[in-house]
Amino acid sequence: MTRGDTADRPVGPVAVFGAGGHASVAMDVLTAAGYTVAACLTPGGSGEKRGVPILDEVEGIRILRAQGVRRAHVALGDNVLRERVTAMVQGEGFDLVSAISPTASVADDVEVGAGTLVVHGAVVNVGTRLGAGVIVNTLASVDHDGDIGDFAHIAPGTHLAGNVTVGARSLLGVGTSVIPETTIGHDVVVGAGSVVVTHLDSTVRAWGNPARTRKAAS
Ligand SMILES: CC(=O)SCCNC(=O)CCNC(=O)[C@H](O)C(C)(C)COP(=O)(O)OP(=O)(O)OC[C@H]1O[C@@H](n2cnc3c(N)ncnc32)[C@H](O)[C@@H]1OP(=O)(O)O
């Protein structure tokens, strides 16, 4: 599905899986994009967040099903956990909702995977593919012809030049820059403020300017 298919078509209400800081951001984006949030779900959850109830995950699924809620967004900042919970949520029969902030700019031909979130002020340029469960966070940018793998996270203020590929579940830490034509493998963590000027293998931690591989991903 492209941005042209998903934009301006809010449907709700939506169950938000997660109740932490990223869930607050996701709820803000979902609301700004026109959705209604039914509840947050997290194991052992109670209380409320932004005026909606926080429910225990198992109990919450039962309650929301009874209320006819069929759509969900998984709002967990940890990439591996987000992938795992997304599989569970799909197994429970929910449809995944993607949301693009109205203050983000996403080109019409950008492919947007299920459950992806594009946060306020982000820019995603032409020819780019965002996989499933991706986060393009606050004021980040992905320039032309990018390819962002499933459950990757482009953290706030990170900038990818043209033709950059990022593998599944990789995190590009806050304020990272990546030069054109660069490939970053899957399950990589790039440290905050790094400048990536060479390809990075999968399952490594790299940081610095220029970013160098320092250790295996934990
Ligand atoms: C909305 C949001 O909050 S989105 C959140 C996005 N998340 C991020 O941006 C976090 C990115 N994570 C980082 O930058 C982390 O510091 C990592 C992953 C690079 C390193 O973490 P660890 O593997 O635990 O390394 P550790 O903290 O032990 O640091 C090892 C050394 O590298 C240095 N170091 C760590 N991160 C960086 C960095 N980004 N740039 C330069 N040096 C760094 C440390 O100071 C330390 O140096 P020392 O050995 O001289 O004391």
UniProtKB/TrEMBL annotation:
InterPro entries linked to this entry: AcTrfase_PglD-like, PglD_N, Trans_hexapeptide_repeat, Trimer_LpxA-like_sf
Organism: Frondihabitans australicus
Name the record gives this protein: UDP-perosamine 4-acetyltransferase
Binding-site residues, acetyl-CoA: 153
Active-site residues from the entry: 144
Pfam families attached to this UniProt entry: PglD_N
Single GO MF annotation: transferase activity
Domain PglD N-terminal per the UniProt entry, residue ranges: 14-87
SUPFAM superfamilies per the UniProt record, alphabetical: Trimeric LpxA-like enzymes
Site feature location: Increases basicity of active site His: 145
Gene3D superfamilies per the UniProt record, alphabetical: 3.40.50.20, Hexapeptide repeat proteins (2.160.10.10)
Binding-site residues for substrate, renumbered to this chain: 77
Keywords: Transferase
